[in-house]
Structures are given as structure tokens and as C-alpha cells.
Amino acid sequence: MKKTALLATSALCAAGVAFAGGHMASELTLVSWGGAYQKSQDRAYAQPYQAMNDGFTYNWDESSAEAVAKLRAMNEAGNITWDVVDVVAADAIRLCDEGLAMEIDFDEALAPAPDGTSATDDFGDLIVSDCFIPQIVYSTTFGYRTDLVGDTAPTSVCAVFDTEAYPGKRSLEKRPINNMEWALICDGVAKDDVYDVLETEEGQDRALAKLDTIKDDVVWWSAGADTPQLLADGEVIMGSTYNGRLFSAIEEQNQPIAMLWDAQVFDLDGWIIPAGLPEDRLARAMDFVKFATDTQRLADQAKYISYGPARASSAPLVGQHADLGIDMAPHMPTDPANAENTFLYNYEFWADYRDDIDAKFQAWLAQ
Fold first, then answer.
1. Residues 6+ apart with CB under 8 A from 190
2. Hey, which bits of the chain come out as E strands?
3. In percent, how much of the chain has pLDDT > 70?
4. Dist CA 137 CA 29 (whole Å)
5. How far apart, in whole angstroms, are the C-alpha atoms of residue 196 and residue 201?
6. Cα–Cα distance between 39 and 54 in angstroms, integer?
7. For every residue of 8-25, which 3-state class applies, written as one string?
8. N or C, fewer C-beta in 10 Å, the chain?
9. How far apart are CA 56 and CA 60, in angstroms?
10. In terms of Cα–Cα distance, which of 92, 99, 162, 85 is closest to 132?
11. What are φ and ψ of residue 140, in 5° steps?
């Protein structure tokens, strides 16, 4: 075990001692993304945990999109105000590399599967960082207004760049991730070559040049709930967001929206624990995370939103939507019918290149 992991284990032991002595903090600040996703976490994890722990309270902070910058600032100020933070895998890798997230001894800190399978084996390859506790498999994909696309509904992600066949505004996330990959794919780059091209200055310029062709037609979003609302209001004809947000708009709100699964980008979301928490807050954070990432709880989240649970043991427990009574499996990004042409996200690439390409992308936006 690495020295840093040993330190984390020592911290967990200290947390355990604090817990045994009755000194767990009575409140947590949980950080997530807002919208339908955060509601699913609240119903599947936070509310049941609160019901089992008298006197415990929690509050949500919807700042996960800014987690890296905010944790850097908190660390600089010596004032860590967050306890459990939901982040995408690439951000977890960055936070871990910078020492801003605590390394986890997964089998020590997390519950085994019901049959005794260890947490590390149950999560398997989805443990992509020593600091990252996987929670869901999701995808970023496109939704479109069924009543605005004419007689021929789009079947290719490159319809986003075809303003002649599909005139109207599109919504894209205000960051380079996914947009740069889709731009290169739709400029003729083979999927397997995308990251080799994107690591070069020429490749980055090529992606931005492709995005230039629709720049005047784009509404930029920064919150996952934005695109579903823009689609519902008819302000855009198509737009990218997380598949679970589109599920909510289509199935729960009955909006005239359909999914475009082509070149959906698989990604992982999960928890990190900020480094440097005092023992009472660390004890509570670890107790919450152990509960929130056990087999049943991860399966429970899939009752409320169409994201695949990260544990292998949770998948057989995924059933019907808690309120709608519909089978959730066909709405998962991992369903074979939806996963015919996926794009595999490269976590390590974005952990290494994110800051530089971010700066270039924001400068391009400002032009």
C-alpha cells in the first residue's frame, strides 16, 4: 500500500475512534449538481441516512461544476467548508493528484457486496483514482424537440453541425470537454484517433474551427438542468446534457423531446472526501459515504433517474421507476440498444490537458 494510502487509512482509523467515542459531526455539507440528479441522491441516500441517524442534518451545495477551483481556493485559505463532494472522474483525478482529495482504502472504508465480494472487486475498473468512490455511469448526449426537427429526425450526432437540415439554436456546455471530441468526429476524425489529434495544437485548432461553424447558433449552458429547460421552452431545437436530465424531461414531464444516443459519451460520477477535514466531520463523511455507496443504495438511485449504478452487485436490483412504474433498464445509457455507437471518454487525457485547453476554449468563446 502506498504511503499516502496508509495515511488515509490512519485518518479513517482516527475517524473510527472519533465515531466510537460519539464525536461524529451532526451536520454535513454535500456538494452536487442540482436538478433531477441531486434530487435522486437526496431521495436514495441523504433522506434515508437522516432517517437512520437521529439529530443529523445536511445541506446541499450545487457547486460540483466548480469543485476543482473552489477546493483549490478553500485549501489556499485553510478553510474547507465541504464534507462530501460529487465530481466527475477526471476532476477526481486532478484533485487527487493535487492532494486536495483524500485517498481511500476502498475495502476498509466501503461496504462489501451482499455476497461478501469486496468493494474493489464490486466496483472493478470504475475505480479510476485512489480518491474516487464511483457512484454512477452516465452519458452526455443530445436531446431534440420532436416537433421542431421536421419529417426526418436526427440519427447522427453530426446533425448538431448541420444547420441547413436542422435550422435553429443548439445548446452546448460551456467547456471544451465533449464538444471538442464531437467536433473532431464530425470533421472526419476516427473515434480511436480523437485524443491523439486533440493533444496537438493543430488538433485543438481544428476542433475549434469546426465549432466556429455553429458558434452563432449556440446557447451555452453551465448547469445540467439548462438544456431540458431550453428544449421545453422551444428556445433550442437540440442540445447536449446528461442522459438522466433528458429522461426526467421526457418521462416525468412529458415534454416533446427525444434522445439522440449517437456518440453518447460515457463518464463516471462519484464522491471524493476533501483532504484536511477535522476528525468529527471526517467520521461523519465516511459513515455517510459507506451507506450511500452500498449495493442497495446505488440500486435505489436508479429508481429516480436513468443512471447505471457503479457496483456490479447493484445492477440486478435495478427495477422500476419509484413514481412512474416504468422499467428503468431500457433508459440506461448502458442498455445495448442505446450503446450501439458510444464514445469512450479519456479521463487521463482531460486530467492532464484540462487547464490548458480550458484556457484556449474560453479565449475562443470570448472572440
1. none
2. 27-31, 57-61, 84-88, 133-145, 170-173, 218-221, 238-242, 257-272, 308-309, 343-344
3. 94
4. 23
5. 11
6. 22
7. HHHHHHHHHHHHHCCCCC
8. C
9. 14
10. 92
11. -100, 125
The β-bridge partners of 59 are 29
In tens, the pLDDT along 122-172 reads: 999 899 999 999 999 999 999 999 999 999 999 999 999 999 999 999 999
Grid coordinates of 339? 450503446
Q: Would you call 63 helix, strand, or coil by DSSP?
A: coil
Cβ contact 328:300 at 8 Å: no
C-alpha cell at 332: 440506461
Residue type, 92: A
The x, y and z cell numbers of residue 330, run together, are 431500457
Return the residue matching grid coordinates 472526419.
188
What are the tens digits of pLDDT across the range 25-53?
999 999 999 988 999 999 999 999 999 99
Q: What are phi and psi of 51, to 5 degrees?
A: -65, -25
Rounded CA gap, 270 and 354, in Å?
19
Q: Is residue 103 a contact partner of residue 7, using CB atoms and an 8 Å limit?
A: yes
Q: Annotate 215-262 with DSSP letters as a single string.
A: GGGEEEE-STTHHHHHHHTTS-SEEEEEHHHHHIIIIIS--SEEEEEE
Say if residue 162 is exposed, middle or buried (CB neighbours under 10 Å; 0-12, 13-18, 19+).
middle
The Cβ of residue 175 has, within 10 Å, a number of other Cβ atoms equal to 19
Q: Do 177 and 123 contact (CB within 8 A), yes or no?
A: no
Distance between CA 325 and CA 54 in Å, rounded?
A: 31
Residue 173 phi/psi, 5-degree rounding, is -70, 145
Rounded to whole angstroms, the Cα distance separating 316 from 339 reads: 19
